[in-house]
């Protein structure tokens, strides 16, 4: 009993306060273990990239990490990074992040737009997002969020497949989008 009372007294002095309801949420932060890869990508393409602060479990956003199965950079600086978990018979979790520096045009896949079946637009974290539900290439069977920033097109997509429902994928995309941190290229020495 004395031990329990001692622990309770010890905790009573802890300064644990909730932030006021009007406080702005903390800015998203790219995890320290992931940041070097995203910084190298931004430096390589000489354009900003978005690092996720969160991906669905068990994925991590570490470039060249265990779950990073697509790492493609084109001559024009556009990039595709894919992170995938797959287990038979459980299912698949697959997230793609893309960037098209200096272009806001939807890319073409075999002569047709890669992103189609435009859904309702939404606004998240002060950004206007276009939702696409029928896509080609690496984003086939994905719900895709597309947005423009400073003359460049960026996308975030997730595969709709077991164990996730369409609604869960939308919730995850919202959470991932709100957690993106823009990483600018660093100045050359």
Give structural notes.
The strands form three sheets. Strands 2, 3, 4, 7, 8, 9, 10 and 11 form an eight-stranded antiparallel β-sheet that branches. The protein has one domain (29-183). The chain has three helices and twelve strands, in the order ααβββββββββββαβ. Strand 10 and strand 11 form a beta hairpin. It has helices at 2-12, 35-45, 166-178; strands spanning 49-52, 68-73, 79-87, 91-100, 108-109, 112-113, 115-118, 122-124, 127-135, 142-149, 152-159, 180-183. The chain is an alpha+beta fold.
Short description:
The protein is α+β, with helices and mostly antiparallel strands and 189 residues long. The chain has three helices and twelve strands; from the N terminus they run H-H-E-E-E-E-E-E-E-E-E-E-E-H-E. Strands 2, 3, 4, 7, 8, 9, 10 and 11 form an eight-stranded antiparallel β-sheet that branches. A two-stranded antiparallel ribbon has the order 1-12.
Output the number of helix runs: 3
- In what range is the share of β-strand residues? 35-45%
Whole-number tally of structural domains: 1
Name the overall outline.
globular
Helix-strand blueprint:
Elements: H1 2-12, H2 35-45, E1 49-52, E2 68-73, E3 79-87, E4 91-100, E5 108-109, E6 112-113, E7 115-118, E8 122-124, E9 127-135, E10 142-149, E11 152-159, H3 166-178, E12 180-183
Antiparallel strand pairs: 1-12, 2-3, 3-4, 4-11, 5-6, 7-9, 8-9, 9-10, 10-11
């Amino acid at each position: 009993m004395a031990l329990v009372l001692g622990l309770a007294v010890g905790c009573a002095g802890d300064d644990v306060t909730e932030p006021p309801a009007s406080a702005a949420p903390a800015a998203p932060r790219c995890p320290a273990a992931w940041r070097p890869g995203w910084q190298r990508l931004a430096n390589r393409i000489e354009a900003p990239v978005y690092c996720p602060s969160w991906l669905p479990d068990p994925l991590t956003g570490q470039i060249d990490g265990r779950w990073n199965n697509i790492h493609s950079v084109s001559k024009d600086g556009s990039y595709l990074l894919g992170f995938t978990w797959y287990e038979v018979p459980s299912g698949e979790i697959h997230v793609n992040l893309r960037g098209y520096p200096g272009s806001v045009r939807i890319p073409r896949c075999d002569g047709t737009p890669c992103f189609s079946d435009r859904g309702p637009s939404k606004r998240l974290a002060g950004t206007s997002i276009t939702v696409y539900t029928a896509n080609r290439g690496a984003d086939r069977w994905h719900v895709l969020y597309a947005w423009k920033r400073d003359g460049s097109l960026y996308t975030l997509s997730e595969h709709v497949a077991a164990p996730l429902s369409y609604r869960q994928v939308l919730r995850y995309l919202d959470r991932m989008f709100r957690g993106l941190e823009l990483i600018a290229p660093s100045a050359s020495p």
